[in-house]
Amino acid sequence: MLNERLGNSSNWHLSFPVIIAAFLVNALDAYNIFDVPLSRIGTLAPFIGFLFCRRKTESLRRSSGYIIFFLFMSLVTALGCAFGEHGGNMPRSYPGSYESFIALRVTNLLSFILCTCVLLELFLSGYFRKFAKALSVIACVISIYSIYAYMAQIYGFPEVPRNRLGTGGEAQATLFTYDFHRAMGTFREPSHMASWMVVMLFFPFICWSGFRAVFVSALMFGAIVLSGSLSAFLSLLAVALLFAVLQLSGRRSISFATFVRGVVVISISFGIFYLFSFAYNSGESASYFSTMRDRLVPVFTSQDALMTTNRSYIYQWIEDEGRVNFFGYGLGNANIVLSASFGNDMIYSFLSLFLNVLYSGGLIGFILLLWIYIKPVIDTLRKYSLLRSREPGVFVALGTYTCMTVSFLGSWEEFNLLFSIPIALMLALKYGPIPDEVNRHNV
To answer: How far apart are CA 13 and CA 49, in angstroms?
Structure first.
């Protein structure tokens, strides 16, 4: 009866390989093919995947909040393009036209919504475990390559040529001002790799058990630690705090086997770090926790804490001239306004989804964002008691959601394919239940 209501999971869903390809190609952020970034090709894949969905109208209706947000942001963007003069301030270093830049921003948002719709249908059709296994395999391969590329950059071994421009508009940097060399894998920035990988950490124990799950998780965790990413460190800290609260509540206990697996994963990952890490000052192994401490302490002890980070230019702009409009400048236009104020030839990023929407969509857009951002969590917690639920999907959804929130606060300024995972999973939990295949392994 469950399969009749949710769809027979034995039937091959054509959107599944398309969406897996989207996540794979989207992770190859450092590379171009015929001068087209591979990650942008991955962004277009959900459009194709959506064509194969069997219940398009139903999926769109269940994602109606995001559709409303998209329509509002598109309207504000269209008005900004029609009545503003942002095109004349377009930085000269941008390789495309003003119109293509704006269209790309709108496309990214729509891609996230369509990816959410596709994943929602897949999860309700019994594909969650298949999805988790596919992403775990992809993340395992990328983590292995990240560790190899880490050594290649130090000792001059060959690696796949990074033929896409870096985030600064020039050739990609592989050396950073840091206490130790930083792993970046197939991404253009170490923090981007770590923020992507930390979401993948939740999947190996969904689809595997025993040594395989521990080994894959340890490789992924090792790549994260080698990246030296503060946002990934804070993401893991936030998730650990969430599960610590559940444990201390006394109403949901972590099994001894789960605890042992966690200890083994962490031990192996830090073994990878101290085996491969290269400290620039001494040539010896660096201290991960000392580095994180040195980055965190000024943020919490300095009177001008925000000005001590590499995001200081944004907060300075907000303090000097960042007036919030009622409707905003529109997607992409806000970045042009930010860039023009510094007189720079490169596109500046807000490095935060919330700041970007505040200036792109104005106060109304920001309120809509908060609504669609918080509502799925509320809906999930209404249906599932967080302290009593044995449904692993709930904890995967909330864990990945927590990690993405940390990244949206200080790294990524747009909705992306990764965030469609927790949103689609929470929507599936709301309209499900998800087929029992998800519960095959307990987490």
So the answer is: 10
Query: C-alpha distances in angstroms, 48 versus 34, 263, 283?
Result: 21, 41, 49
My answer on whether omega of the bond before 435 falls inside 30° of 0, hence cis, is: no
Taking phi first (over 0 means left), then psi (-120 to 50 degrees means alpha), and beta for anything else, what does residue 32 get? beta
Q: What is the C-alpha R_g of the chain?
A: 22
- Is omega for the bond preceding 392 within 30 degrees of 0, making it cis? no
DSSP 96-151: S-HHHHHHHHHHHHHHHHHHHHHHHHHHHTT-HHHHHHHHHHHHHHHHHHHHHHHH
Which residue in 402, 405, 403, 396 sits closest to 425, CA to CA?
Answer: 396
Q: Are 411 and 351 in contact (CB under 8 A)?
A: yes
Q: Which residues, 6+ apart, have CB-to-CB distance to 113 below 8 Å?
A: 63, 66, 67, 70
Unique residue bearing structure tokens 């993340």: 139
pTM > 0.85: yes or no: yes
Domain boundaries, the chain: 2-440
**What is the spatial distance between Cα 429 and Cα 383, in angstroms, rounded to a whole number?**
8
**What is the DSSP-derived secondary structure letter of residue 325?**
P
CA pair distance 78, 354, nearest whole angstrom: 20
Give the integer Cα–Cα distance in Å for 384 and 396.
13
8 Å CB contact between 151 and 276: yes
At position 173, the amino acid (one-letter code) is: A
Residue 80 exposure: Cα atoms within 13 Å on the Cβ side: 30
Q: Using N-to-C axis directions, what is the helix angle for 362-383 and 420-431, rounded to 10°?
A: 50
pLDDT (tens, 9 = 90+) of the chain, 443 residues, equals: 333 333 334 445 889 999 999 999 999 998 998 888 888 889 999 999 999 998 899 999 999 999 999 999 999 999 999 988 888 888 877 778 899 999 999 999 999 999 999 999 999 988 999 999 999 999 999 999 998 998 888 888 888 888 887 766 666 667 776 777 788 989 988 989 999 999 999 899 888 877 888 888 888 988 998 888 888 888 888 888 877 776 665 545 555 556 566 666 666 666 666 666 655 544 555 666 677 777 777 666 655 555 555 667 787 788 777 678 888 999 999 999 888 888 777 888 898 999 999 999 999 999 999 999 999 999 888 877 655 556 677 888 888 999 999 999 888 899 999 999 999 999 998 887 666 544 444 43
User: Which residues make Cβ contacts (< 8 Å) with residue 177, sequence separation at least 6?
Assistant: none
